[in-house]
From TrEMBL:
Compositional bias segments (type: Basic residues): 1-11
Keyword Transmembrane helix: yes
Domain of life: Bacteria
UniProt keyword list: Membrane, Transmembrane, Transmembrane helix
Transmembrane segments: 65-84, 96-113, 120-138, 174-198, 210-230
Segments of this protein annotated with the region Disordered: 1-38
Keyword Transmembrane: yes
Record's protein name: CDP-alcohol phosphatidyltransferase
Length: 603
C-alpha cells in the first residue's frame, strides 16, 4: 500500500490554531466573505502548513524559541538599519538607544494595508533599508578616506579604483575575493532586510489590535520627546536619521546635476585664455621650470605631533643643504580641492585655476580647452614640455590638455626593480630617470616638466630608503630595500604604524627631491613643489584641514623677488600662520607674478 495512505494530519496546537485564525482573518475581505483561491495554491499552502505543524510536534520546545529568536533578529536588523549613522565617529552604542520615527510610520502603514499590498510594501521597505545601509557604509568609508560622503551619481567608478589599490597593496587574489565578498554581502543584506520587514509585517497583522495601540503609544512618545528635547546618553531620544540620510543623498544628487551645468559655464571663462604665447610667463624665459607633486604631503605632516618632528628635521636639513648649494626657497599653504585620495583632482585644480573637486568637474574641464599652467609654457613655443608619471599605468589622454609633448609613464622609464605597494617605483629612481631621459640632455630650448612623486602613497609600506645616486642603475638595487621594508598587511590596519610610516614616506620623498636639486640643479632651475592633498583621516586626524605645503625654490634671486608680496615663509617649512590660498588661486597668481598679461576668453 502506498506510504501516503498512512499519513495522518498532526494535531493542531494552540499556537497553530491562533496563527491560522490570524491568517484567515487577515485574508478575509471587509464584507466577511471568504475569498476564492485556486485549488493548486490551496493545496500547496496546506502541505506547507502540515510540514510546519509536523516539525513543531517533533520539536515542541525549539519551535517557539526559534520563532521568537527570528522575530527578535528581524526587529534588530530593521531598527539597526534605521538608526545606523553614516560616519564612523558617530558609530556608538548611544545612537541605537533611540526611537526612529520611520519605524512608527512604517508600522502604521503596514497595519492599514490589505494582505497582498502589505507584503509588497514590507518587502520594498526592507529592501530600501538594505540599500540605505549600503549607502551609509559607503559614506563611512568615503568620509574616512576622502573626507566627504559617497556621491551616488559620480563615485561608482572610484570603487574600481579602490579594488585596484587593494590589489596593488595586498595582492590580486585578496582584491578579487574582497570584491566578490562585498557583492555577496550587499545582496544578502538587501534580501535579509526584505525578509525581516516581511516577518515584522506578518507579526503586526497577527496582533493587529495590540500593534495599533503600541504604534499610537510610540508616536505619542516620539512627539513628546521632540517637543521637550529629551535626550539619553547625550543624543535625542526621538530621531529621523534614516529620512535625513535619504534627504542628504537626494540633495547631493540634485546639487551634482546643477553643478555640472554651472561649472561648464565657469570653465569656459578664462582670464588668460586668449593671452598670446609671447605674453605668457616672459620673466621665466630661459628657465627650466619643474612642477612637482608629492603624494599626500599635507599640513599634518608638518604640524602633527607624531609626524612633524621627523618631517620638520628633514625640511630644515634640506633647506640648509640647498642654501649651501646656492638655492633659496619660499613656502606657503594651499587648500586642496580633495582629501585623502583622488590626487588628479588636486593636480587639475592647481594647474587649471578652477576648483575641480569631483569627477564630473574633472571630466568637464579636461574635455575643454581651459588653459593649464603647464600648457601656458607649451603655448609660448619656447619650452619643451614633458610629464614624469610613474603612477600612470594605462592610457592617459589628459596629457594633451595639460600641454605635455611627451609623457613617461610607469613603463617608459626602464625600471626593473620591485613595486612598493601601489607605487610602481621609488621617487629616487623616477627623478634619476628624469635626469637621464630629459633634464640632463643637451637641448635647444629650456624644459618645463610636471613630475608626480608616488612613494608617499598609502599604505606606506614598504617605504623606500635612499641609495647612492650612482648605484641606482635600472632599479634592481631596490629589491633588497623592498624585502627589508614592512608589509602592507602589517601597517594598513594599524593607525599608529600608518602615521609613523606616512611620516617616513614624506621624509623620503622630500629628501629625494631636494637631493636631486642639489645634485643636478643649475642657475636656471626653478622648482615648484607641493602636496596634492592630505592623507586619509585615520592618519591626518579627525577634523584635519585640507591644507598642503607649497614651495618655490631657485638660485636666481629674481625668481623669489617676483613673489615677495606673497609674504611666504623663507625656507621649505611654511610657518603655521603663513598665507593660505585656495589651490585654484595659484595659477593666476603665478602667471601674473612672472609677467603674463591677462586676455580673458569665454565671457
Amino acid at each position: 500500500m502506498p506510504v501516503f495512505t498512512h499519513f495522518r494530519r498532526p494535531a493542531r496546537t494552540a499556537d497553530d490554531t491562533h496563527a491560522v485564525a490570524a491568517t484567515d482573518a487577515d485574508d478575509a475581505p471587509e464584507d466577511g466573505t471568504r475569498p476564492a483561491r485556486p485549488g493548486r495554491l490551496r493545496a500547496l499552502r496546506t502541505r506547507l502548513a502540515h510540514r510546519r505543524g509536523a516539525w513543531r510536534i517533533r520539536h515542541p520546545t525549539a519551535a517557539p524559541v526559534l520563532r521568537r529568536a527570528t522575530t527578535v533578529l528581524a526587529a534588530a536588523l530593521v531598527l539597526g538599519a534605521l538608526l545606523l549613522p553614516n560616519t564612523l565617529v558617530a558609530l556608538e552604542p548611544n545612537r541605537f538607544a533611540r526611537i526612529p520615527v520611520e519605524a512608527v510610520v512604517g508600522a502604521v502603514m503596514l497595519l492599514c494595508l490589505p494582505r497582498a499590498a502589505r507584503r509588497v510594501a514590507a518587502a520594498l521597505f526592507g529592501a530600501g533599508l538594505g540599500v540605505l545601509t549600503v549607502l551609509n557604509v559607503l559614506d563611512m568609508g568615503f568620509t574616512e578616506y576622502l573626507g566627504r560622503g559617497f556621491n551616488v551619481v559620480l563615485d561608482w567608478g572610484l570603487l574600481d579604483d579602490a579594488q585596484s589599490y587593494l590589489a596593488d597593496s595586498m595582492g590580486g587574489a585578496v582584491a578579487a575575493w574582497a570584491a566578490a565578498g562585498a557583492v555577496v554581502l550587499v545582496v544578502l543584506l538587501v534580501l535579509l532586510m526584505a525578509l525581516a520587514a516581511l516577518r515584522l509585517g506578518e507579526l503586526l497583522a497577527a496582533h493587529r489590535e495590540r500593534a495599533a495601540r503600541g504604534a499610537l503609544m510610540a508616536a505619542t512618545v516620539w512627539m513628546t520627546c521632540v517637543a521637550l528635547g529629551v535626550q539619553t546618553f547625550g543624543v535625542p531620544v526621538a530621531t529621523r536619521s534614516a529620512s535625513a540620510a535619504l534627504e542628504a543623498q537626494a540633495h547631493r544628487v540634485v546639487d551634482t546635476l546643477r553643478d555640472e551645468a554651472a561649472f561648464a559655464r565657469e570653465a569656459k571663462a578664462d582670464r588668460f585664455g586668449a593671452t598670446p604665447g609671447e605674453e605668457l610667463v616672459p620673466d621665466l624665459r630661459g628657465k627650466d621650470v619643474i612642477f612637482t607633486f608629492i603624494e599626500s604631503y599635507g599640513r599634518s605632516a608638518v604640524e602633527d605631533p607624531v609626524m612633524a618632528p621627523g618631517v620638520g628635521r628633514t625640511l630644515e636639513a634640506s633647506t640648509k643643504a640647498l642654501a649651501e648649494a646656492g638655492f633659496h626657497a619660499r613656502s606657503g599653504w594651499l587648500t586642496s580641492a580633495t582629501y585623502g585620495g583622488s590626487s588628479w583632482l588636486g593636480h587639475s585644480t592647481f594647474l587649471s585655476g578652477l576648483w575641480v573637486d569631483n569627477q564630473q568637474r574633472y571630466r568637464t574641464v579636461t574635455a575643454g580647452d581651459h588653459l593649464t599652467l603647464t600648457k601656458a609654457f607649451e603655448k609660448t613655443g619656447d619650452w619643451d614640455t614633458v610629464g614624469v608619471m610613474p603612477g600612470v599605468q594605462k592610457a592617459w589622454p589628459e596629457a594633451e590638455w595639460y600641454g605635455l609633448d611627451k609623457v613617461y609613464d610607469a613603463f617608459g622609464m626602464g625600471y626593473e626593480g620591485p613595486k612598493f605597494s601601489w607605487s610602481t617605483m621609488p621617487d629616487q629612481y623616477a627623478l634619476e630617470a628624469f635626469q637621464r631621459l630629459e633634464h640632463g640632455r643637451k637641448r635647444d630650448r629650456p624644459l618645463m616638466a610636471e613630475i608626480i612623486l608616488t612613494s608617499s602613497h598609502q599604505p606606506w609600506a614598504p617605504v623606500p630608503t635612499m641609495v647612492g645616486w650612482d648605484e641606482i642603475g635600472d632599479g634592481s638595487v631596490f629589491h633588497g630595500v623592498a624585502r627589508a621594508g614592512e608589509k602592507p598587511s602589517d601597517v594598513i590596519a594599524d593607525t599608529t604604524r600608518s602615521r609613523q610610516a606616512y611620516g617616513r614616506s614624506v621624509q623620503y620623498s622630500v629628501t629625494c627631491l631636494t637631493q636631486w636639486l642639489e645634485r643636478y640643479g643649475t642657475d636656471d632651475t626653478v622648482l615648484v613643489f607641493l602636496g596634492d592633498h592630505q592623507p586619509i583621516a585615520r592618519v591626518s586626524g579627525t577634523g584635519a584641514s585640507r591644507d598642503v605645503p607649497v614651495s618655490i625654490v631657485a638660485r636666481d634671486p629674481k625668481v623669489l623677488d617676483a613673489i615677495a608680496d606673497w609674504n611666504w615663509t623663507e625656507g621649505l617649512k611654511p610657518a603655521h600662520d603663513a598665507p593660505v590660498w585656495r589651490m585654484s588661486a595659484f595659477r593666476d597668481r603665478f602667471l601674473t607674478a612672472y609677467g603674463s598679461v591677462p586676455h580673458p576668453s569665454g565671457r
